[in-house]
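Box 3.1 A note on notation
Throughout this textbook, protein chains are presented in two layers. The first layer is the amino acid sequence; the second is a C-alpha coordinate string describing backbone geometry. Keep the layers aligned when reading.
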Amino acid sequence: MSVILSPFQQHRIKMTEMQQKKQNFVDSETSLHIVIPELERDIEYLRTFGDDMTERIKYKSEVILPKWLPKAEQYLQVGQIYPNPIFVWCIVWLFDTGQLDHALDWAEIAIEQNQNTPKNWGMKLPGFVAKSVFDWVETTAANGHSIEPYFSRVFELIKTKWRIYESDKAAWYKFAGLYLLRDENGTPRATAVDSIDTLNQAKELLEQAQWIYANIGVKTMLQNIEQRINALNK
Protein backbone atom coordinates (compact mmCIF):
# COMPACT_ATOMS: atom_id res chain seq x y z
CA MET A 1 0.00 0.00 0.00
CA SER A 2 1.49 3.27 -1.11
CA VAL A 3 1.57 6.26 1.23
CA ILE A 4 0.19 9.52 -0.12
CA LEU A 5 2.23 12.45 1.07
CA SER A 6 0.87 15.91 1.53
CA PRO A 7 2.39 18.75 -0.50
CA PHE A 8 4.09 19.98 2.68
CA GLN A 9 5.65 16.56 3.33
CA GLN A 10 6.77 16.30 -0.29
CA HIS A 11 8.36 19.73 -0.05
CA ARG A 12 10.14 18.84 3.19
CA ILE A 13 11.55 15.64 1.68
CA LYS A 14 12.70 17.54 -1.38
CA MET A 15 14.43 20.18 0.75
CA THR A 16 16.14 17.47 2.82
CA GLU A 17 17.43 15.80 -0.33
CA MET A 18 18.68 19.12 -1.67
CA GLN A 19 20.47 19.81 1.60
CA GLN A 20 22.14 16.41 1.51
CA LYS A 21 23.29 17.02 -2.06
CA LYS A 22 24.64 20.40 -1.01
CA GLN A 23 26.59 18.87 1.88
CA ASN A 24 28.05 16.24 -0.45
CA PHE A 25 28.76 18.67 -3.24
CA VAL A 26 32.50 18.99 -2.79
CA ASP A 27 33.61 15.40 -2.40
CA SER A 28 36.23 15.21 -5.15
CA GLU A 29 38.63 17.33 -7.17
CA THR A 30 36.18 17.21 -10.09
CA SER A 31 33.22 18.55 -8.13
CA LEU A 32 35.49 21.20 -6.58
CA HIS A 33 35.80 22.96 -9.93
CA ILE A 34 32.05 23.42 -10.04
CA VAL A 35 31.99 25.59 -6.90
CA ILE A 36 35.21 27.56 -7.55
CA PRO A 37 33.34 30.37 -9.37
CA GLU A 38 31.11 30.80 -6.31
CA LEU A 39 34.16 30.91 -4.06
CA GLU A 40 35.73 33.56 -6.28
CA ARG A 41 32.54 35.64 -6.16
CA ASP A 42 32.63 35.58 -2.37
CA ILE A 43 36.30 36.58 -2.35
CA GLU A 44 35.55 39.44 -4.71
CA TYR A 45 32.57 40.55 -2.62
CA LEU A 46 34.80 40.80 0.46
CA ARG A 47 36.85 43.40 -1.38
CA THR A 48 33.80 45.69 -1.53
CA PHE A 49 34.16 46.35 2.21
CA GLY A 50 37.21 48.49 1.51
CA ASP A 51 39.05 49.52 4.68
CA ASP A 52 36.16 48.68 7.00
CA MET A 53 37.93 45.83 8.79
CA THR A 54 35.28 45.45 11.47
CA GLU A 55 32.49 44.83 8.97
CA ARG A 56 34.69 42.58 6.87
CA ILE A 57 35.64 40.39 9.84
CA LYS A 58 32.01 40.25 10.96
CA TYR A 59 30.91 39.13 7.49
CA LYS A 60 33.63 36.47 7.40
CA SER A 61 32.58 35.17 10.82
CA GLU A 62 28.83 35.19 10.28
CA VAL A 63 28.44 34.47 6.57
CA ILE A 64 31.58 33.29 4.79
CA LEU A 65 32.96 30.74 7.26
CA PRO A 66 29.61 29.08 8.07
CA LYS A 67 29.13 28.68 4.33
CA TRP A 68 32.53 27.22 3.42
CA LEU A 69 33.76 25.45 6.55
CA PRO A 70 31.50 22.40 6.02
CA LYS A 71 32.97 21.93 2.55
CA ALA A 72 36.52 22.10 3.90
CA GLU A 73 35.62 19.71 6.71
CA GLN A 74 34.18 17.29 4.17
CA TYR A 75 37.39 17.46 2.13
CA LEU A 76 39.34 16.41 5.23
CA GLN A 77 36.88 13.63 6.07
CA VAL A 78 37.02 12.10 2.59
CA GLY A 79 40.79 11.78 2.86
CA GLN A 80 41.70 12.44 -0.77
CA ILE A 81 44.55 14.93 -1.09
CA TYR A 82 44.46 17.45 -3.94
CA PRO A 83 44.84 21.23 -4.33
CA ASN A 84 41.85 22.70 -2.52
CA PRO A 85 41.48 26.50 -2.47
CA ILE A 86 38.37 26.23 -0.27
CA PHE A 87 40.46 24.57 2.43
CA VAL A 88 43.18 27.21 2.11
CA TRP A 89 40.80 30.16 2.14
CA CYS A 90 39.05 28.80 5.22
CA ILE A 91 42.43 28.78 6.97
CA VAL A 92 43.01 32.39 5.91
CA TRP A 93 39.59 33.45 7.17
CA LEU A 94 40.05 31.59 10.45
CA PHE A 95 43.22 33.60 11.04
CA ASP A 96 41.47 36.80 10.00
CA THR A 97 38.70 36.20 12.55
CA GLY A 98 41.10 35.31 15.37
CA GLN A 99 40.28 31.59 15.58
CA LEU A 100 43.89 30.61 16.05
CA ASP A 101 43.48 27.08 17.41
CA HIS A 102 41.34 25.98 14.48
CA ALA A 103 43.46 27.92 12.00
CA LEU A 104 46.74 26.40 13.17
CA ASP A 105 45.36 22.86 13.31
CA TRP A 106 44.26 23.12 9.70
CA ALA A 107 47.33 25.07 8.62
CA GLU A 108 49.63 22.29 9.77
CA ILE A 109 47.61 19.78 7.74
CA ALA A 110 47.54 22.04 4.67
CA ILE A 111 51.29 22.61 4.82
CA GLU A 112 51.91 18.86 5.10
CA GLN A 113 49.71 18.47 2.01
CA ASN A 114 51.71 21.19 0.23
CA GLN A 115 48.58 23.23 -0.44
CA ASN A 116 49.14 26.41 -2.45
CA THR A 117 48.29 29.97 -1.54
CA PRO A 118 46.29 32.05 -4.08
CA LYS A 119 48.08 32.74 -7.36
CA ASN A 120 48.69 36.45 -6.77
CA TRP A 121 50.25 35.98 -3.32
CA GLY A 122 53.95 36.54 -2.84
CA MET A 123 54.41 33.91 -0.14
CA LYS A 124 53.71 30.26 0.45
CA LEU A 125 51.47 28.93 3.20
CA PRO A 126 54.18 28.56 5.90
CA GLY A 127 55.15 32.19 5.34
CA PHE A 128 51.55 33.37 5.55
CA VAL A 129 50.91 31.45 8.77
CA ALA A 130 54.18 32.63 10.32
CA LYS A 131 53.37 36.25 9.47
CA SER A 132 49.77 36.01 10.70
CA VAL A 133 50.81 34.59 14.05
CA PHE A 134 53.77 36.98 14.36
CA ASP A 135 51.48 39.97 13.85
CA TRP A 136 49.16 38.59 16.52
CA VAL A 137 52.08 37.94 18.88
CA GLU A 138 53.45 41.46 18.54
CA THR A 139 50.05 43.05 19.18
CA THR A 140 49.24 40.72 22.07
CA ALA A 141 52.61 41.24 23.75
CA ALA A 142 52.34 45.02 23.36
CA ASN A 143 48.98 44.87 25.14
CA GLY A 144 50.50 42.95 28.04
CA HIS A 145 48.77 39.63 27.37
CA SER A 146 50.17 36.11 27.13
CA ILE A 147 51.45 35.04 23.74
CA GLU A 148 51.18 31.36 24.55
CA PRO A 149 50.59 28.70 23.43
CA TYR A 150 50.66 30.10 19.90
CA PHE A 151 54.13 31.65 19.96
CA SER A 152 55.93 28.52 21.12
CA ARG A 153 53.89 26.28 18.84
CA VAL A 154 54.71 28.20 15.67
CA PHE A 155 58.27 29.06 16.68
CA GLU A 156 59.04 25.35 17.06
CA LEU A 157 57.62 24.65 13.60
CA ILE A 158 59.68 27.48 12.13
CA LYS A 159 62.83 26.13 13.78
CA THR A 160 62.30 22.50 12.77
CA LYS A 161 59.95 22.16 9.79
CA TRP A 162 58.77 25.23 7.92
CA ARG A 163 60.78 27.11 5.32
CA ILE A 164 60.11 30.85 5.31
CA TYR A 165 62.04 33.95 4.21
CA GLU A 166 65.30 34.41 6.13
CA SER A 167 64.32 37.89 7.31
CA ASP A 168 61.02 36.57 8.68
CA LYS A 169 62.68 33.62 10.40
CA ALA A 170 65.25 35.92 11.97
CA ALA A 171 62.45 38.17 13.24
CA TRP A 172 61.06 35.25 15.26
CA TYR A 173 64.43 34.60 16.90
CA LYS A 174 64.86 38.32 17.56
CA PHE A 175 61.43 38.58 19.16
CA ALA A 176 62.10 35.51 21.33
CA GLY A 177 65.39 36.97 22.53
CA LEU A 178 64.03 40.43 23.24
CA TYR A 179 60.98 38.99 24.98
CA LEU A 180 63.24 37.48 27.64
CA LEU A 181 64.62 40.96 28.37
CA ARG A 182 61.35 42.83 28.87
CA ASP A 183 61.04 45.07 31.93
CA GLU A 184 57.82 45.77 33.88
CA ASN A 185 56.69 48.09 31.08
CA GLY A 186 57.33 45.54 28.32
CA THR A 187 60.49 47.28 27.06
CA PRO A 188 63.47 45.03 26.27
CA ARG A 189 66.41 46.08 28.49
CA ALA A 190 69.39 43.95 29.39
CA THR A 191 69.74 45.83 32.68
CA ALA A 192 66.23 44.69 33.67
CA VAL A 193 67.44 41.09 33.96
CA ASP A 194 69.37 39.75 36.95
CA SER A 195 69.65 36.13 35.78
CA ILE A 196 72.80 35.29 33.84
CA ASP A 197 71.10 32.16 32.50
CA THR A 198 68.27 34.26 31.05
CA LEU A 199 70.74 36.73 29.59
CA ASN A 200 72.65 33.89 27.93
CA GLN A 201 69.41 32.46 26.52
CA ALA A 202 68.52 35.84 25.05
CA LYS A 203 72.05 36.24 23.69
CA GLU A 204 71.90 32.86 21.98
CA LEU A 205 68.56 33.67 20.33
CA LEU A 206 69.72 37.07 19.13
CA GLU A 207 72.98 35.65 17.79
CA GLN A 208 70.96 33.07 15.88
CA ALA A 209 68.78 35.85 14.47
CA GLN A 210 71.88 37.73 13.33
CA TRP A 211 73.38 34.59 11.80
CA ILE A 212 70.19 33.93 9.81
CA TYR A 213 69.83 37.52 8.62
CA ALA A 214 72.72 39.91 9.23
CA ASN A 215 70.60 43.08 9.01
CA ILE A 216 68.07 42.03 11.66
CA GLY A 217 69.33 44.79 13.96
CA VAL A 218 70.42 43.15 17.21
CA LYS A 219 74.07 44.25 17.43
CA THR A 220 73.51 46.93 20.06
CA MET A 221 71.39 44.67 22.25
CA LEU A 222 74.02 41.93 22.08
CA GLN A 223 76.59 44.43 23.31
CA ASN A 224 74.25 45.47 26.13
CA ILE A 225 73.74 41.84 27.15
CA GLU A 226 77.50 41.25 27.25
CA GLN A 227 77.98 44.32 29.41
CA ARG A 228 75.21 43.21 31.76
CA ILE A 229 76.69 39.71 32.13
CA ASN A 230 80.10 41.20 32.89
CA ALA A 231 78.57 43.50 35.50
CA LEU A 232 76.75 40.63 37.22
CA ASN A 233 79.90 38.50 37.26
CA LYS A 234 81.92 41.13 39.15
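The two ends are 100 Å apart (CA to CA). Residues 18-24 have pLDDT under 50 and may be disordered.
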